[in-house]
Write a structure and sequence with these properties.
This protein is mostly beta strands. Helices cover 7% and strands 63% of the residues.
Length: 440
């Protein structure tokens, strides 16, 4: 079977699954007896961008992509704990193509969900993004989760992995399945171990992950979290993160932690090459430590101090340390915010060192809202002949109706990659909430 035939069969199977989930979503509408009562939430975001990019040789391309992001939720169908969810987006180019084609789009999720009235059981069927232990994937499949009265629980999932970066003729994983066993006590602890396997002929070995996760309230106001994944295909720890959060009162929030990831194990030998980041070197191993202090020293005034140290195994890019101090003020009955921050980055390589300054603010009056955000970076050494980089974003929005808002932004950028570039953005937002039917 040739590579093109495999890809065509995969797409045909994917289309059948999409038709299935679409049928599931239309079921409550097509069956009035079931749809006697339900809560409808509809959200639409339409974005229009306008900008130019210069090609080598001096010619310019003019781009005007139009994006639509649509999400719909049907809840309490027939007065039951059954709901249907949909999220998708599409793009059409009104000028030069921004991709390999003038149009594109994806169905991010389309699934039916059941929640037990007492919250100790959950089931999903269709396409959805799964975050359960070691799993952080989108699948066309099913998910079930149950918790016993003593706190022991189990979740199981299985289906076809959805890999959006589909390249014609490129093979994808054939199946993805796994589960998680956990113990949870509300407000005190949740501890879990998980397993995930993705089978297919993408590479020589299947993707296989073992995971562990922990959330523990040590004492009131002190929380400990941890998460780790082991990649059995590459025989290495893919990711680890441990953090301690201390909240001694309503005005102070302190957190610190450690994070580690190995690119080879994290992005795995079995992962589709379409997901490989060309700027990441697989042999690199990265560790970082961080600390964040958030202090509301006066009502409406908050001081934030952040420190982070990133350590690479490779001499290039080498290690770096970032320190940041910021002040923000919330006013106008918590509807607006203004502030500024300054940061520095000290690094092994001079080209990675810079100082950063940012100022931002919003202003609202009845149906009108204005925002301004300005960022400047002062490089330790010139990059592409420039010692400074600037970006300023100004936005004006007006709410015509309770559910309808129109806004526009201008983005001005002068950086090593963009020379005094201006981008225009028009945004139309529509949000609807309604109850359909009369027998709830």
């Amino acid at each position: 079977m040739g590579e093109g035939t495999v890809g065509r069969l995969f797409l045909e199977r994917r289309n059948r699954v999409c038709l299935l989930v679409a049928a599931i979503l239309l079921l409550p509408i097509a069956a009035p007896a079931v749809a006697d009562a339900m809560d409808l939430k509809l959200s639409s975001r339409t974005y229009g961008l306008i900008y130019e990019r210069e090609r080598p040789g001096g010619t310019k391309d003019r781009f005007a992509p139009l994006f639509e992001y649509l999400s719909t939720d049907l809840e309490n169908v027939g007065g039951k704990n059954v709901s249907f969810h949909f999220y998708g987006w599409g793009r059409v180019d009104l000028a030069d193509d921004t991709g390999t084609d003038g149009t594109s789009g994806e169905i991010g999720s389309a699934y039916a969900e059941y929640l037990h009235p007492e919250g100790n059981a959950q089931a999903k069927l269709g396409r959805f993004f799964l975050t359960e232990g070691a799993a952080m994937d989108t699948i066309d499949g099913a998910f079930v989760k149950m918790t016993t009265p003593v706190g022991l629980g189990v979740s199981l999932f299985g289906g076809i992995p959805v890999e959006y970066s589909e390249i014609p003729g490129r093979e994808n994983g054939d199946s993805l399945y796994g589960g998680r066993v956990f113990f949870a006590r509300s407000g005190r602890i949740e501890l879990g171990v998980s397993y995930l396997k993705e089978e297919g002929s993408i590479r020589e070995t299947d993707r296989e992950l073992f995971g562990g996760d922990l959330w523990l309230q040590v004492i009131r106001g002190v929380e400990l979290t941890g998460q780790a994944f082991y990649n059995d295909a590459t025989h290495g720890m893919a990711y680890q993160r441990y953090a301690l959060r201390v909240v001694p009162g309503a005005t102070v929030d302190v957190s610190a932690g450690f994070e580690s990831y190995d690119y080879k194990d994290l992005f795995g030998a079995t992962l589709n090459p379409a997901f490989a980041f060309p700027f990441l070197r697989q042999e690199d191993d990265v560790n970082s430590i961080f600390a964040i202090v958030d202090w509301e020293f006066m009502k409406g005034w908050t001081l934030e101090v952040v420190g982070k140290r990133i350590m690479h195994d490779l001499a290039n890019p080498g290690d770096a340390t970032r320190g940041e101090v910021g002040l923000r003020h919330i006013y106008n009955k918590n509807m607006d915010v203004m502030g500024f921050s300054t940061a520095f980055v000290a690094a092994d390589l001079p080209e990675n060192e810079y100082r950063e300054f940012r100022a931002f603010g919003t202003w609202s009056r009845e149906k009108l809202r204005l925002t301004l955000d300005a960022l400047a970076q002062d490089f330790e050494q010139r990059i592409a002949g420039k010692a400074l980089a600037f970006q300023v974003v100004g936005t004006a929005g007006y709410r015509f109706l309770k559910a309808l808002q129109l806004s526009g932004s201008l983005i001005w950028t002068d950086s090593p990659t963009l020379d005094k570039d201006v981008t225009g953005l028009v945004r139309l937002s529509y949000d609807l909430s309604a109850t359909l039917g009369g027998k709830k």
